[in-house]
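=== RUN LOG ===
request id: a7f3
mode: sequence -> structure
chains: 1
length: 78
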Amino acid sequence: MLTADGTLSSTPLIDVASGATLDVSQPLTGLMLGSGQTLAGSGTVSGNVNAAAGSTLVPGTSPGTLTINGALNLSGAS
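=== RESULT ===
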């Protein structure tokens, strides 16, 4: 479950399937990816994504597209 501060702390892999939407528009901070977490897939994220150092973004399969309808903030993510 997405917490009030935008984290899914017990989830190392967040995989958004093609055609699916992950709504992280509430809280206002959006999704906060922590170190060791991966956001992957070919779907859509509705809201902001904040990727901390040590987190990873993996858009789809090669070549792939992960759509983010919001701001993407990278802080040392790979």
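=== NOTES ===
The chain is about 0% helix and 40% strand.
The two ends are 24 Å apart (CA to CA).
=== END ===
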